[in-house]
Write the structure tokens for this entry.
Amino acid sequence: MSAAKKIIISLTCPNCGGQVEAEEGENLVLCKYCDSAFSLTTDEGIGKIMYRLDVTREKAESRFAGWLKDGPKAKDLAEKAEISEAYPIYLPFWRLVGRGKACVCGVEVKKGDKDEPDRRIPHESLVNREYIYSDIACDPGDLGITAIRVPDHAAAVQFNDDAIVTFGVTESRDDAYAAGAEEIKRQALADGKRSMDEICFSKAFFFEKAFSLVYYPFWIIRYTYEDRAYFAVLDGITAEIISGRAPGNAGSQSTAAAVGGTLAGVVLAAFIFFGFALGALEAIALLFAFGVIIAAGIIIFSYNRFRYGDEILEGALKGKGLKRGKKQRSIETNYENTYDMFN
Amino acid sequence: MSILLQPLKCSACGAPLKAKERDRMLLCSHCGTLSLVTAGKTAPVNFAIAAPAIESRDALVYIPFWIVNAEVSVTHEKISGGGISRMVSGQKQMRGVRDFYICAADAVPEEYARVWNMELTLKQPEIKTVPDFAGSERVVMTMEQETAGENAEFIFLRYEAEIPGTLQELDYEFRVNSTKVLYLPAYKKSTSYQLGV
């Protein structure tokens, strides 16, 4: 599915009993057999869509086993980790698709050289793009899931909450819509801002295409390692690891500390050496300063690896630990039919 | 949760409406009235059909536009450069009351629609109307009435940004007086369109 392709749900025509297909967010529905026109309403005023779980337990567990071996995790994790439970769950997300249009005017400030004043270059821009916003509609607790990206091959089915495990929706439809519309406008303004340092005028609009509550499948795998509990969350359609906790690698911790410290010292020494080789006092001072900055960078990096290396946090998890993986983005852009202008 | 399908009825005679395409303007097969579908209900609609001003051998179709009558008042504007170009090309700024043309059909590619919207809004063509579509295709209307006003406001901003010079500051008020539907004639050849007014 291209990012903004609409989701189809199937219903029964009250007039002739034929199958009626309704598009996500659309309130005008037609029966292709008897041509009757209907308005579509739901008791909660919003279309609910559910995606089919494509990933089997075997596939989820094998992908999870691969993840245990990946990255600076405890060396014997794959051997010693024991799965305590693995189950599919559907989490609700708000999904808002629409066009963001913005006009942004401002000034780019280019710093002048010593004697020259700053150059102020006026810019104007028009943005006209389609955006897709998604945001988790429940409190996912410690799972670290914030948004979804629906893959092309995902199959939508009519929502049926009897058969699934899910969390209750905690945010109101209107609040979610308002937040999504604001976020899309904010993104259109950000896309229009580009190189401007000062904004003198800006205005953004949002035009809705579809708004729905999407139930998206995940696998939750809870496991233990040396009597401590950890978990991983997998995308139920792509099997990708979305978030997870894992014990870190103690060996890599001490290596980080040792290598980091040594490297920082060597870099600083090298800079000082080159400074003296060049001879000039200014060059020595400048290279020494550079050396200190780079060495400090290395030390901070290795200290973080050392300090937080005891736990690995994958995805959008909060807390102390070495953070890995990518965060889910709440806004995506569909670049088809984009009409921007930048001056 | 339950999903309800409620039959849409003609705003004039109450007969159930039938349609082959998802059109916001539904024609009653019983009394011939066009009803506007808005917020899940049907409502009477103020619309007109423009007569073709040019002839062509290509297929004549009627494309729905939202005509947004609005007043633009600008209290402050600063444009950097481009003053001479604006004077030479005679481009006036968009002020006062005018009709904004907003193409309301998704079937028309945006590359045509955005050009028409601007040209028609600037030229304010004189429209002669005809009483019916005389058997020509009526293109499906997809844009809802609620969004027409903001689309018109964006046309104003687009114009101010597109004219020579770089727009820097703008204080304005955009007041919508009324909206109505106007079907404009166009000639269609495979996927290309030529406006017939």
Observations:
- Residues 94 and 156 of chain B are 7 Å apart (CA to CA).
- Residues 54-125+140-190 of chain B form one domain.
- Chain B has a mean pLDDT of 90.
- The two ends of chain B are 49 Å apart (CA to CA).
